[in-house]
Amino acid sequence: MGLGNVRMERALRRNTVLNKIGRALPSLARSFDKRAQLRDCDILALQEVCLADKGQIPYFEKIFRKRNLEPQHYCATEHPTPSGRCQKGLVLMSHHPIREANQLRLPKVGVHRVAVWADISIPGLSGARGPLLRVYNIHLSNRDGRNWRPVKGRHSQLEAVLQHYRKLEALVPGAPVIILGDFNSIGTVVRRQETGINMIKRDFDSALTKFRQTMVLPYMTDWIFYRNLQIRSAGVSHIASSDHFPVVATFALG
């Protein structure tokens, strides 16, 4: 399961956690309670959530309700015609109003993948669209059949997200945008980043400016990319509740 955390303290923070969410829920909840950088989120992005399990989303809604905030969320299943006990999918959640949201079907690489996006109204944000912030939550493929490094396939999936973002940029130049989630990229300290990561860096800045291990394997798979926002801080929260670690970023308002 992947999760992303954005906050606006006159700043905005965001964070990403991943995989095996069902069994990890009690431990994840304790991790959020103990870490202010996770607990005080404004926007939460989750991947690999079992949407057929009616108990999973409420666990994360409690993060907001403990602060007397009422969350909204948008979700979508990865498979276009879901079935089974899990129905794995993505969730975007915020206590700020979600003005519009939808899903974006990505090119099939091994299995079906989807991105979800939302326009969230952030009080105090003065961007090209006023208070509206566009956030994309994505989960790219980790393999394609026997190909355990489908770099070209992930590149095509990320290109689909960027094409969608460019339509917004053409309509409203300078619109603030965040793209985050599980990119399944396998860059390491010694291995160069994948072509898709290099591609998105032409238009977006990375919240993490140097290599950071974001899962139990020594890879940097989880990212927060942004444009037309001012970043305050970013980091990785090492928790034992998931095989991926939350990535957290704080952005200034104004």
Q: What does the model show?
A:
It is a single chain. With 254 residues, the protein is of the alpha+beta class. It has a single domain, classed as 4-Layer Sandwich (Deoxyribonuclease I, Chain A), CATH 3.60.10.10. Helix content is 22%, strand content 37%. The strands form two sheets. Strands 1, 2, 3, 4, 5, 12 and 13 form a seven-stranded mixed sheet that branches. It has a six-stranded mixed sheet with strand order 6-7-8-9-11-10, with helices on one face. Strand 8, helix 4 and strand 9 form a beta-alpha-beta unit. Helix 1 runs parallel beside helix 3. The relative contact order is 0.20. About 6% of the residues have low confidence.
What features would you highlight for this structure?
254 residues, single chain, 6-stranded mixed sheet, alpha+beta, Deoxyribonuclease I, Chain A, 22% helix, 7-stranded mixed sheet
